[in-house]
Amino acid sequence: MHQNNVGIGKVSMNAKWLIFYLTIIPTSAIAWDGYDSDSGSQIEIQKRNLVRQGKDIDFYDYEEGEYGSGRVISITKNGRGARVEIEDDETGEERTFYME
Asked: Looking at the predicted structure, is the pLDDT value of residue 39 above 70?
């Protein structure tokens, strides 16, 4: 009798990717908290944002007390969270958010 063990490795690899994406990229149902590396301001990336390179996101800057938006330049895993670099739509400047 021949047993096919190929599926075991695939499940394990798929589980690893799922865990990776769940820790790096927030789901659309929850907000993602972090801070701006330059100002130290608390940042919240709003619900229903797909945080991927080239995509536009909306965020709330607690120090400024207002909402902002920007285009994601890059996203890099950083320990428990990620570093998200954006180009701010209002100022045109690059901002770096460290998200948990």
From this structure: yes
